[in-house]
Amino acid sequence: MPAALEGIRVLDLTQIMAGPFCAMLLADLGAEGIKIENPRGGDDSRRMAPPYYNGEPASFIAMNRNKYGIAIDIRTPAGAQALWQLIETADVLVENFRPGTMTRLGFGFEAVHTRHPALVYCSISGFGNTGPYRERGGFDLVTQAMSGLISVTGSPEEPAKVGVPISDLNAGLYASHAILAALLSRVRTGEGQYIDTSLFEAALAYTFWESNEYWATGHAPQRLGTAHRLSAPYQVFATARGWIAIGAANQRNWEHLVQALDRPDLLQNPHFANNAERMANLAELVETLTTTLKTRTTEEWLPILEEAGVPCGPVLSLDEVYQHPQAQARAMDIQVEHPIAGHIHQIGFPVKYSSTPAHMYRPAPVLGQHTFTILESLGYSPERCRELEASGAILDAHLDTNKEEDA
To answer: Which residues make Cβ contacts (< 8 Å) with residue 9, sequence separation at least 6?
Structure first.
C-alpha cells in the first residue's frame, strides 16, 4: 500500500529545529521532502557540534532524515529560477526565515500564491507575522521564558527551562498538523493557503492547566518541581538509591500506595484525608513519604508498588531508555547507514499505523547530496548543472550514492 503522504512534495527552506522537524514528520509519512540549503555552509545546525557521527553533525542528522538535499543560492538569479521551478512542482513550502525575508527575496506568500495557488505555504517564526515582536528571531529558550513555561518549571527556589526544546518541537508539530488540514481543505477547494505559527504561541498553547488556573483564580501558578498542579502525591521521590515516579493521583491509588508502603497510619492523618488536604499540605506529605521511600532502593520499591496497583516508574537516563524492552518493542531506536557518517541511530516514529506506517527511507543528506539529481529531473542538463555550480549558484556533493537514488 502507498505511504500515507506519497505523491506530496514538500520544499523545506528551514533550518535548526522547528521547521526541519515539521518537514521531517511529513517525510516520515511518505511525503517527498526536499531540503533546500545555502551552498555556503547550509543549515546552521550543521555547525551545532560536537557531537559528530564520523565528522557529520548529529544535530543535523537528527532532524533531517527522509529528505533529499539540494544546495541552491536563492539570492542569485539562477538560484531563484531553480526555486521557482521547484515551487511549481510542489504541494507544500515550509520556511522559517524572519518575517519579511521571503517577501524581500521575491518568494512571499502573495507572489507564490499568484503563480501557484494550490501550494500550501507555511511560515514558522519566533513570534508570528503580526504583533510588536514579529521581527524578533526565534529562540527556544527565549520563547519558553516569554510564554510562561519557565515560570512554572523548576523548583520553588529556581526556575528551569524544559529539558528538551519544547517551543521549537511543538511549533514544528503544530505546523505539520496545520499543513495536513490545509492539504485536506485543498482537496475540497483546489486552493492552497497561508499558515503562520510561532515558537511563542506553540509554547503558550501547552499551558492548558496553568493558564486556566490563572483565569480561574486570578493568581499566576507557581513552580512545583515534579509535583502535579492538581493532584497529590504525583511526583518524583528519592529512594535509598535512585528516584521513582509515583502517580497516586486519585483516592483509590492513594489508598493502594499507603498499603504498599505499610503506612496505614497515613489514612488516619487528617492532613492527607483527601486530595484537597494532600495538596494543601504537600510539603508535609512529600517529607513523610520520602522518609519511608528512602528505606529501600528504587529497584526494591518498583515490584512492591506495581503489585499493589500503584502507577509508578523509575527515572531512566537515555542510555537506560534505549535498553528498555518497552522502547525496543515499540521500535523507538532505528538504525541506518549514512554515506559519510556510517552506522547511525534515529528516534523511531511515535505513532504506529495499521496500513500506512511511517518508514525510514533515507538518512539526512550530505550538503548538496541530490542537487544535480533534482535539477536534472526538472529538465536541467548535466552541462548546465556544472555551469551553475561553477558560478556558485548551486553545490552538489558528488557522491556515488546519487546514482543509486531515484528522485
So the answer is: 31, 32, 34, 89, 90, 91, 92
| Span 249-260, average pLDDT | 97
Residue 118 banded pLDDT, cuts 50, 70, 90: very high
3-state secondary structure of 326: helix
pLDDT at residue 400, rounded to an integer: 76
401-405: list long-range contacts, CB under 8 Å, 24+ apart.
Answer: 401/339, 401/369, 402/369, 402/370, 402/372, 402/373, 405/68, 405/362, 405/370, 405/373
Cell numbers found for residue 167: 517551543
- Calculate mean pLDDT across residues 65-88: 98
User: pLDDT class for 60, splitting at 50, 70, 90?
Assistant: very high
- Whether the model pTM is above 0.70: yes
* Edge-first strand listing for the sheet containing 67-72: 194-198, 120-125, 92-95, 9-13, 32-37, 67-72, 394-395
- The CA distances from residue 303 to 114, 249, 251, 298, 357, in Å, are 64, 19, 21, 9, 35
Going from the N-terminus, what domains does the chain have, and what CATH number goes with each?
Answer: 9-206+327-404 (3.40.50.10540), 234-238+243-314 (3.30.1540.10)
Neighbours of 141 (CB within 10 A): 13
Q: Which residues of 35-74 are buried (b: 16+ CB within 10 A; e: fewer)?
A: bbbbbeebbebbeeeeeebeebbbbbbbbbbbbbbbbbbb
Instruction: Note whether 261 and 277 are within 8 A (CB).
Output: no
Q: In what order do the strands lie in the sheet with 234-238?
A: 234-238, 243-247, 312-314
- 90's CB contacts (< 8 A; 6+ apart) are 9, 10, 11, 34, 116, 119
Q: Which of 168, 262, 319, 333 is catalytic?
A: 168
Q: Which three cell numbers stand for residue 200?
A: 511563542
Distance from chain centroid for Cα 398? 31
Hey, is 313 helix, strand or coil?
A: strand
Element (H, E) at 307: helix 298-307
Contact indicator for 139, 158 with CB cutoff of 8 Å: no
Q: Is 262 one of the catalytic residues? A: no
